[in-house]
Amino acid sequence: MFDNLTDRLSLTLKKLKGQGRLTEDNIKETLHEVRTALLEADVSLPVVTDFIERVKIGALGQEVQASLSPGQSLIKLVQAELVKVMGEANEALNLRATPPAIILMAGLQGAGKTTSVAKLGRWLQENQKKKVGVVSTDVYRPAAIKQLQMLANEVSLDFFESDISQQPVDIARNAIDAAKRKFLDVIIIDTAGRLHIDDEMMGEIKALHAAINPIETLFVVDSMTGQDAAITAKAFNDALPLTGVILTKADGDARGGAALSIRHITGKPIKFIGVGEKTDGLEPFYPDRIASRILGMGDMLSLIEEIEQKVDKEKAEKLVKKIQKGQGFNLEDFREQLQEMQRMGGVGSMLEKLPGMNAVPSDMKAQINDKMLARQIAVINSMTMQERKYPDLIKGNRKKRIAAGCGQELHDVNRMLKQFLMMQKMMKKFKSGNVANMVRGIKNNVRGMRR
Ligand code: GDP
Ligand code: MG
Q1: Which residue of 71, 88, 283, 354 could cross-link 17, Cys pair, CB 3.0 to 4.6 Å?
Q2: Could you tell me if 55 and 13 are in contact, meaning their C-beta atoms sit under 8 angstroms apart?
Q3: pLDDT tens digits for 238-259?
């Protein structure tokens, strides 16, 4: 997400670096380029105009800070404006209702409603320990009901049956009653969408809203629709008292304009972004982190949270204990680590969030792909257990055998061993301390960097 905008902005702001101070002239030129970058990212015009005006006022009125170069001061201003446009802070879901808290999903067909119902259910289950039920009122497409049922089963959410012969309002009421009897904390109601805004659809969802009075009414919108996303958002916002937005398919959107326009146009917070097709592809939306990501500062905090969540903590603790006891980090441990990375969605998704990664050419990034992980694991797989435990054994002939065994070259085996040695060295450093401390350490470092 935001690749193009990031590339443009970092190039523009880099040009300012050498200059002594911010003047009306050099600001003018830079802001012109920022403006073009935003428009190309498909941010809607009124938002861009407003944005540029505010950065300009800020830049001209600003005392020159001795510690910052003009480029840096402008980055700071642009970053602050980006955060402001996107809504300052993450706004959490409001679930303070007599249970079950009702969440209604609205949006066009294909926006990602059904997928988001399952993702959100899973997220609430995993992160807030909520008991969540889901139901579909999409009585136009039997396949859509089936789709939700399958997703719900996959992530163990309570699924309430519905049928295309029923009325959406009745389906929702029945499900809410059933959820009450089962003492569920939350019920998420999926709805039908159309390809375009039409009165019938709006009428139907308005009636549904009035009948069930949800505490959250979330507008689900496909970020890849760019300018259209802003227009649809306005139409839904006029028809329904929206409480928030889920911006989907951010993983496939290089422009990112919708994230900047929607808040401005609807006044409603983006609460989550969809970042993948699978049910774990949902993240709370943090304006400051996204702004940093746009400016190429990476998103270390999201990354660390992801690592904390997805790494198998028990396994990690075991590994640390083992190392503390003085038993060395061996190739079997390394293999487990590589597999862990694979499970976390691979190297690619981690790299994207690291600071400075936008400076790495994209063809190079593509090379550091998940195939590499699989190849390294294959090398270890073709070793005997003894070799994995005592890597020092691996010399000439054994190396050849291992290479042949996994269908790779000798230098592939050597490269893998070299990386293993580097990792082993790092692991020795962590000898004193546990995983929690390690993670805390990284976090503090990152916070320091961000200041
Ligand atoms: P609905 O018609 O609004 O219910 O939309 P669906 O939930 O059926 O989603 C439409 C398509 O978008 C499906 O193929 C989903 O897999 C895909 N999709 C939804 N959210 C995301 C996302 O965040 N990222 C990606 N890559 N695909 C998504
Ligand atoms: Mg659907």
Answers
A1: 71
A2: no
A3: 999 999 999 999 887 667 788 8
